[in-house]
Amino acid sequence: MAGVPPRTSMSDWQTLRNDLARQGYVATADLAMALHIAVVLGRPILLEGAAGVGKTEVARALAQARDTQLIRLQCYEGLDAAQAIYEWNYQRQLLAIRASAEDGQTGRSVEQRIFSEEFLLERPLLRAIRQPVAPVLLIDEIDRADEEFEAYLLEVLSDFQITVPELGTIRAVTRPIVVLTANGTRDLSDALRRRCIYAHVDYPDRETELAILHARLPQIEDAFARQIVGFVQALRKEELEKTPGVAEMLDFAAALAGLGVNDLTDDPLRLQATLATLLKTQADRGQVPTEVAQRLAGKAA
Amino acid sequence: MSRVTRFAARDPGPAARLAGFMDHLRSHGFRLGVAETETALRALDAVGAVQPDAVRRALKAVCSGCAEDAARFDDLFDSFWRNGGRVRQKVMPDRAGAPRHTRTSQTAEGQDSGSGGSPHAPEGGEGEAEAGGAGRLVASRVHNLMKTDLRKVVSAQDIHQAEAVARRLGEAIRDRRSRRRRAARKGAMIDLRRTLRASLATGGEPLRLARRTRPDRPVRIVALCDVSGSMAVYARPFLAFLAGLMRADGAADAYLFHTRLVRITEALRDDDPLRALNRITLLADGFGGGSRIGGALDDFARGQARRFVNGRTVVMILSDGYDSTTPEVIGGALARLKKRGCRVIWLNPLKGWTGYTPVAQAMAAALPHLDLFAAAATLADLAALDRELARI
To answer: Could A43 and B39 be called an inter-chain contact, meaning their C-beta atoms sit closer than 8 Å?
Structure first.
């Protein structure tokens, strides 16, 4: 290949990983590599994994690491173009029409005025392609949105342009770094999967989780941190309806620190009380009575 | 690196090798097109293909498209690029067989020379290499002999018939339109109250029309099929039925169980029905073995059911109820399943026998939890069920 573009050095993804770590996000090698490729090739990245493993957090850390804006689009059932892309500000348009009618203006001049940028409400997708510095666009829980929206999104993500009939086509000033997350509410289309770089985010292993805890709550001392992580990891192996994620682990640690606990086996009552941060359903609470919690804590110690 | 690759020094270059790798992945069910090969090359260019680990991660990010792909990728990568993969040590030349279009017959196709990592031309090359050198380094032959080839059990015609049956059953269960109307983005009726309320913001002009519609109440079918030894005789209609069901109904879900539970939904969705069966053959390791109905149902109730079963689901269990686990387990599992609000149907081939009573302990334990307990031994029996299904 003649005239190759300037080749980035091979440890670039390591740099990205370190940058993320500096923002308090401990990424696995696979994830860092996937992010790096997505950034370099300008492709969207699709993150899949159970709830609470830190998918959304990736985007936030990435935005901070690159010192750019994070634009977030939370998907939900029934999300439509008006909420995701743009909408005319009808109220202002009506006011403008009435005001100009009193001034005696009518016809084309009014029309041109009310269909101008001034009256356009930017929604996340449009905003993301009009930033001077490429932002990180987080499209959260894409699997909650309808299939038709997914199809529309594909179009926007491949062309990076949006057509507003009254204004014409708006082209991207910069290409945002697109991060999509999904946790399996429904199957995503093959087309979307194919267009994206893919990374599966799993529950972190013991060492990684320990590193996360250190990064987020440095005041917790090492031995206790090990105990907390060991406890949560053991808890994940129990048969629970809602397996506690990383965020829950951090809440748990913060709660323990706030209560002044520094050994899990010390005070069964407090441990049981702080379990509220980890177990979120009635059945799960029933599944982990004091004895079980103590056994797990004992093992973790 | 101590490991020897199986590429000759005179191969056509990295791009061809990578194309060969993409083909390798494709033959293992990855959905990859030409564009992905290009992306993969660009990704390798971007990361600098020097360290094997970096290359593996880069290709993994580009090539895998779902969690299953990602989980399998490492093994496939090793088996292609490194001789340390699951390489067979014994030469088993059967290159003549296994036509290429049944792409999932890889286990029968593999024929890497395998004698301690002798160099081998990669696929994608010209001449000889193209003619037969494509090694599919996957599972070993010994393993393969333990499996039953489902293609011998079920014919394509069966599946087509079953598809029609499954459609009928699906329709019998499905068509439950609600009488109520619910606010919706698109709908036949205009929601006057909401429209008027919204028009206040625009000075009384109803700019945004709110609509109402009758919500769909789709019913999902989740079928669990017992393929243990005692059910072997009925495997033919039931498997055909599962395959037909998957093809007729995009939302349905299918599982096989013997001593463990396997989700076969993805495999059965393959466009080619026979290839689909072939893929299941690979999954259904242990076909015709012992049965552990209670355990499998329990696994299901605790595992996949949490994701795939809700109040609008019909769980269809195809089994004879001869179980090796204790009956309490099966009762407990079904009770747990029922708690999710689904309806449970048990289709037992033995029930068709005159004078059959559910004396098998497992069956007796299951009975109180069932919405319908019916006989089904052939496709015709299944087809006749539509009326009963419409009632539950």
So the answer is: yes
